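Subject: Sanity check before I submit

Could someone independently write out the structure tokens for this chain? I want to compare against mine line by line before I put it in a report. The sequence has 391 residues.
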Amino acid sequence: MDKGNTIHIRRRNDYWGEKQRRNVGTANFDDIQIVVVRDRNIEFEMFKKGDLDYYFVNRAQMWAEELNFEEVKRGLIQKRRIWNHSPQGVQGVAMNTRRAPYNDIRVRKALRHLFNRELMIEKLMFGAYTPTNSNWPGSIWENPNNENVKYDPQKALQLLSESGYKDRDSQGRLTRNGVPLTLELLYADKNSERFLTIFQEDLRKVGINLNLRLVTFETLIKLIDELQYEMATLGYAGIPFPNPETSLLSSLADQKNNNNITGFKNARVDELIKQYDTAYEVEDRIKIMREIDSIYTNEHHWIYEWYAPYVRVAFWNKSGAPRGYVTRNGDQMDIPLLWWIDPEKVQKLEQARRDASINLGEGPAEDKYWLEFDKLEEKRKGDSATPGSSK
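---
Independent answer below. Compare away.
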């Protein structure tokens, strides 16, 4: 889709299902305009000017340091961190195991031990994220027994020595059979350099050269689809019910243009995928997925990063929203579906934009409606299970 284009979505007045229960209260806007902006910094500036109604905040630094300008302080722009159960996808550095040295599990695990995500979360992410130890983090599908691979240079050097990288050249670089260990990592987001350069420096300290290569997002995806990469930073959105067949099936490992981007092959996982596809009970599916998760994470195809169990959004104070702002398992994509224009808020906002003395109030930055909902739901379950309890 070309940048600068605008898509108009207009309401139909003859939708046959408008009055059905599942649709009541949704699709409240008569006209939605979607503007294509490829640069998130430009998108943020457009939002601040009022050209966009809301902005999804995906950086902790922006949330902590950049959302403190006048319109936010006066409540013209509201910000909410919405805690819910939005499915988390995998995010991190994918390794192409079809290529050396990434075809060696010891090298892959060593690289995980050299990625100091604890420091990055604390110093760069304002402690706002949780380390990822699963392909389905923070969900019922995650195996709670997965190893938490922490920063440990000595353990990394031990693994590298076992894989043959135990000598050094005149420049102090680790070598195997006289060949230095030199790696390349593709990335498409310049903001990623904040932590990628830390990774690069930590690798240098143990004798590994890492070339960081900035490319466009289109180039990144093209090279990954064509299997022409070593390592690449990217992330996948989560879905409520995972579909491991599309990303972990062995038959896809050496094919181009599919989601098995790291070249994963495992006969037991292939068997489990067949079981998962035919399992009916949720408990059975959870058990299967947790075994798949354990096998896959123990193969160390990803240098896992972090995730957040919430959605951060800033918006101009002219809309109404249901309790919880988004659905229990939703994210910012729910906004056009569930929110609505509040004429009274629109009028107050317009007055406040003309008169700098008007303060609309910042509102609560944290919204934990869905977490409180969970507590009430658990309490109701407990009460109904108690002998002699009233219903």
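---
OP: Matches mine. For the report I'm noting this point. The chain has a mean pLDDT of 93.
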